[in-house]
Amino acid sequence: MKIYVKISALSFIFFSFLVPAQAGDVVKGKAIFDRLCFHCHKPSYDDKFAPGLAGITERRDTKWLHSFLQNPSKMIEHDEYAKNLKASNPYNLTMPTLPEMQNEQNREDIIAYLDTLGE
Ligand code: HEC
Question: How far apart are CA 33 and CA 110, in angstroms?
Fold first, then answer.
């Protein structure tokens, strides 16, 4: 009996890692934006200290957004578009690597919110 409990507990822990992130939650994404992104970005087409993020999901695909949000400095080094973005940014600021953006679900949520901008 005990061993079964252990096995099922272990398989639960194991399989919970395999469950993919849930579809992005717009409300949670907006909360993340208001807390972490709005210091530099506007949710419109206008620049603040960084490009306005309206329409970003049309300019960039989801895979690119995940990579950039997770590791912007690596993207700025290796990705042509990110390199140009950095080079043309007049504010002497750069997109920070944020601990919250290391979490896939948080990225799904913020991308879901970004997708509602510019409609
Ligand atoms: C300290 C300021 C700052 C903060 C905070 C910040 N960013 Fe940025 N972000 C930038 C800058 C500056 C760029 C332009 C690239 C560069 O120069 O590094 C940028 C670029 C981007 C781009 C690409 C824009 C384009 O037009 O292609 C996206 C997407 C983005 N940021 C999303 C976010 C999100 C989402 C957050 C919050 C989780 C965030 N940023 C927080 C400064 C910031």
Answer: 7
Ligand 1 pocket: which of 33, 36, 41 to mutate (most atoms <8 Å of CB)? Answer: 41
Q: What value does the mean pLDDT take over residues 80-102?
A: 94
Residue 11 in domain: no
Protein residue with its CA nearest to atom 37 in ligand 1: 37
Q: Distance from the CA of 25 to the center of ligand 1, in angstroms?
A: 20
State the residue range of the domain holding 40.
Answer: 25-114
Q: How confident is the model at residue 62 (pLDDT cuts 50, 70, 90)?
A: very high
Q: What is the pTM of this model?
A: 0.87
Task: From 65, 9, 41, 64, select the one nearest 118 (Cα to Cα).
Answer: 41
Structure tokens at 10: 């272990």
Whether pLDDT at 63 is above 80: yes
CATH code of residue 87: 1.10.760.10
Q: Which atom of ligand 1 lies nearest, measured to the CA of 49?
A: 12
Ligand 1, CB cutoff 6 Å, lining residues = 32, 36-37, 39-41, 49-51, 53, 56, 59-60, 65, 68-69, 72, 76, 85-86, 89, 93-96, 98, 101, 110
